[in-house]
Amino acid sequence: MMSATATQAACHRPASSATSRRQRGVKVQACLRDGAERLAKGAAAAAAAGLLLTGSTLAASERMTFDELQSKSYLEMKGSGRAGMCPMVGPDGEVGIRGMPTGTYKMDRFCMEPTAFNVKVPGDNEYRKSTLVTRLTYMLSDMTGTVTVGNNGTMALTHGMDDDGFDYAAVTVKAAGSPGQGGEVPFMFSVKNLDIKGPSDNMAGSLVVPSYRGATFMDTIGRGGATGWDWQKGLPAADQDKLREQNDKALEPTPGSAAFAVTKSDPLTGEVQGVFVTRQLSSDDMGGKPEDVCEVEVQGVWYGQLQV
User: In 1-127, where does DSSP find H-type helix?
Assistant: First the structure.
């Protein structure tokens, strides 16, 4: 078992270009798990202060409940900035989940809306703010899964939340110091195989991040994971290891960590809302550019409806 100091040192050590994607995933998994408890505490603190809403396109007072959103027409929603936002629990809600009966529920309309993207580039010790490059299409919505509410204020999402809905989104941000082209950091924002549990204001656990590229994607030379050329034509004798990374496309998923906190719930409607923080790896171009991999921290708000 690595000590906290040793684990942090390993997290901050830049990865070798010869290190396999799977090996990097194992190392980062240890790093992300080591920070899961700190993430959860940070999420709970941010929930109490309402800090995670500061990066949203609309103020908290301008957010709408689920019923209010459903009552709007297309023209009323068009250009308002609300289409890519999660609903909020109504004014009758209460803090936490104290009034929610214990038991196993189906969570429907589970929504996650990022409000901030922070990036830790290779060789850096801190996550720093980044600038969004892609459009506002990063929200995960209409996901379903199973949730267990305990009698001691605990909550568990241990069966994933990817039974249905949009559970991943391709996002690109620009971060200072990133080794990628133009400082861009592409990554797949995902909560596949979400497995978290703990006190409702301090849940922590893991998730799985699929490859940013699909098996049928081909690079500029026509190489792909399941189609295209296997090797670059006219393979030079020098730089075999580097060329092998570009030729052998890797599509394995990588691990990530997540921390969730419930801020408000309504036992009458079954609605719950809160804040989240996730950490994961950025894209390595199907294993071809391991030196460009950064760690990405996503902060935001979430919403769901519990049904018996």
Answer: 4-12, 21-34, 36-49, 66-70, 74-77
Who wins on pLDDT, 273 or 53?
Answer: 273
C-alpha 39 chain-centroid distance? 13
Closest CA to 249 of 206, 285, 208: 285
CA–CA separation, 113 and 140 (whole Å): 7
> Going from the N-terminus, what domains does the chain have, and what CATH number goes with each?
23-72+84-213+256-307 (2.40.160.30), 215-250 (3.30.2050)
Q: Are 155 and 197 in contact (CB under 8 A)?
A: yes
Q: What is the DSSP string of 243-269?
A: HHHHHS-----EEEEEEEEEEEEETTT
Handedness of CA 133, 261, 167, 249 (dihedral sign): positive
Give the pLDDT confidence of 211-236 residue by residue, as tens digits: 777 666 666 676 666 666 666 656 56
Q: Calculate the CA dihedral of residues 162, 165, 167, 173 and round it to 10 degrees.
A: -170
Half-sphere exposure of 128 toward its Cβ, with a 13 Å CA cutoff? 14
Distances (CA, A) of 140 to 14, 113, 136, 217: 31, 7, 11, 23
Name which of 196, 188, 144 is nearest 168 in CA terms: 188
pTM: 0.78
Q: How far separated are the first and last CA of the chain, in Å rounded?
A: 41
